[in-house]
Design brief:
Elements lengths: L2 E8 L6 H14 L3 E6 L13 H12 L5 E3 L2 H4 L6 H12 L3 E8 H4 L8 H7 L1 E6 L7 H6 L7 H9 L1 E3 L7 H9 L10 H10 L5
Parallel strand pairs: 1-2, 1-4, 2-3, 4-5, 5-6
Bound molecules: adenosine-5'-triphosphate (ATP).
Adenosine-5'-triphosphate binds next to helix 1, strand 4 and helix 9.
């Protein structure tokens, strides 16, 4: 039986409990024992001053320390240029071998844009693309999926539709956390304690 590896990519700037709870919810629903958190390279115009890729990476390590479900994968940080999912999936396949089922988790916003991703059709062949959505699924979803008929085969579209998973609603974002730090407000409980301490110790997001 092929063991699924849940791959959860993001900028994680910083990682917060929303990421961890969603990733665990998907892993539980798919019976997966491993989740790979994959921080992406950030284009220079989006980068936060004073926050290096090493900081984002270190915060991820601190967030999942001692939790056997999670591993942190630095593939995208080590690759020069933009982080394309198709390249990441190829490298994960090389790393984990042929017997692992790769599951790439996205949100609903990304699902409706998936057709514009680089080599989108290959992405859904390399991995099972699972969309985490808080219920209810929007009524116009099938119409929006139909708009991607030029990018995917009918079978691929059916698979994408079938792999929509309900996940909890957590109104937490990294943007909100960065704003709270800037305004000198507490981020306690929004991020793991060790991440909170790291942000304070290194003075991240204060400017
Ligand atoms: P930012 O606010 O800087 O855009 P973010 O909080 O959305 O960041 P990312 O690192 O961009 O975090 O997110 C990685 C993935 O996690 C994305 O697919 C995003 O949709 C998803 N995600 C982030 N926060 C939540 C949340 N609270 N609930 C569900 N999914 C989330």
């Amino acid at each position: 039986m092929r063991q699924p590896l849940i791959c959860f990519g993001g900028t994680f700037n910083p990682v917060h409990v929303g990421h961890l709870i969603i990733a665990r919810a998907v892993a539980e629903q798919l019976g997966a024992k491993r989740v790979s958190l994959i921080p992406s390279a950030i284009p220079p115009h989006k980068a936060c001053p004073g926050v290096r890729a090493d900081d984002r990476l270190e915060m991820l390590h601190l967030a999942v320390q001692g939790d056997e479900l999670f591993e942190v994968n630095r593939t995208e940080l080590e690759r020069p240029g933009p982080s394309y999912t198709v390249d990441t999936l190829k490298s994960l396949r090389r790393l984990h071998g042929p017997d692992v089922e790769l599951v790439w988790v996205i949100g609903l916003d990304s699902l409706v844009e998936l057709g514009t991703w680089r080599q989108a059709s290959e992405v859904v062949e390399l991995a099972r693309v699972v969309t985490a959505v808080r219920p209810p699924v929007p009524a116009d979803l099938d119409d929006r999926l139909a708009l991607m008929a030029n990018a995917f085969t009918p079978q691929q579209l059916l698979r994408l539709r079938a792999d929509i998973l309900p996940t909890p609603l957590l109104d937490i974002s990294a943007t909100q956390i960065r704003a709270r730090v800037r305004e000198r407000r507490s981020i306690r409980y929004l991020v793991p304690d060790r991440v909170d301490e790291y942000i304070a110790r290194h003075g991240l997001y204060r400017l």
